């Protein structure tokens, strides 16, 4: 993979934290920062995907509810007739 050199300005406290972690990356600030940026980008994509899924689930909720309600009256009538049959009140 090709790498490009960029210039980034960081606050002293952020740079200090990066430097404290760079030993995990063979002493390289560049590797440490690249790893952190990759992690951030991956997490951001995951969050965006979760938000899109939530939007889809919410959009489908009304549709699913209306489909379920369409069948409820029919199911309830069948259940009532069956219960009456079991009680011997009328023929099924």
What does this structure look like?
The protein is mainly alpha-helical and 92 residues long. Helix content is 74%, strand content 0%. The protein has two helices and no strands. It is rod-shaped and about 85 Å long.
Overall pLDDT score: 88
Oligomer: single chain
Strand tally is 0
What is the tally of helical segments? 2
Radius of gyration: 30 Å
Flag low-confidence runs: none
The end-to-end distance, rounded to whole angstroms, is 74 Å
Structural class: mainly alpha
Q: What portion of residues belong to β-strands?
A: under 5%
Overall, the morphology is rod-shaped
Written as H for each helix and E for each strand, in order along the chain, the element string is: HH
Assign a percent range to the helix content.
over 70%
Largest sheet: none
Give structural attributes.
single chain; 92 residues; mainly alpha; 2 helices; rod-shaped
């Amino acid at each position: 993979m090709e790498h490009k050199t960029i210039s980034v300005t960081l606050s002293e406290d952020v740079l200090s934290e990066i430097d404290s972690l760079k030993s995990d990356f063979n002493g390289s600030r560049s590797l440490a920062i690249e790893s952190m940026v990759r992690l951030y980008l991956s997490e951001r994509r995951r969050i965006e995907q979760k938000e899109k899924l939530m939007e889809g689930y919410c959009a489908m909720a009304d549709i699913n509810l209306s489909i379920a309600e369409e069948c409820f009256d029919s199911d309830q009538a069948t259940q009532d007739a069956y219960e009456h049959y079991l009680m011997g009140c009328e023929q099924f």
